[in-house]
Amino acid sequence: MRFFALLTVMAVLFLGSCKKDEVDQMALDEEIIQNYITQRGYMATRTPSGLYYVIDEPGTGSFPTIDSTVTVRYTGKLSNGGVFDQSSAAGIVFPLSSVIQGWQEGIPYFREGGSGVLLIPSHLGYGSQPRPTIPANSVLIFELDLLDVN
């Protein structure tokens, strides 16, 4: 019985520390994004999830939905300005439902033909899971053009 009580206490402490780490990371991401916005003079809009977006060119076509297949030309950067990925000039085609949460939420703010920037906190990107060219807990910045919506 004592073993299960001890195990329960340990689990509660571990889960409590995870929550705090998540909150700390969200606060750090917010600070990084705010500094990036300030340095570049962006007029960015914040969503309730912590995603920021900047519409440079509004576009004239339709807005995509999570069920859309889109063509996007993009450059992906880290907050230090380093490029970790970019598409060809023709862009890439993908179902919006198959990408990171930050793109699923952010791309629908753009109309077909529109362009701008998504500033994605780590919890809407890859979180604590590093990728070959992206460190764990990275804020992701995407300069993008929404070329086509189907």
Helix and strand topology:
Layout: H1 2-40, E1 45-46, E2 52-57, E3 69-78, E4 83-86, E5 92-95, H2 101-106, E6 115-120, E7 140-149
Antiparallel strand pairs: 1-2, 2-6, 3-4, 3-5, 3-7, 6-7
Q: Would you give an account of this structure?
A:
- With 150 residues, the protein is an alpha+beta fold.
- It has one domain: Roll (Chitinase A, domain 3).
- Helices cover 30% and strands 28% of the residues.
- It has helices at 2-40, 101-106, and strands at 45-46, 52-57, 69-78, 83-86, 92-95, 115-120, 140-149.
- Strands 1, 2, 3, 4, 5, 6 and 7 form a seven-stranded antiparallel beta sheet that branches.
- Strand 3 (69-78) and strand 4 (83-86) form a beta hairpin.
- The radius of gyration is 18 Å and the shape is globular.
- The N and C termini lie far apart (59 Å).
- Mean pLDDT is 90; it is low at 1-18.
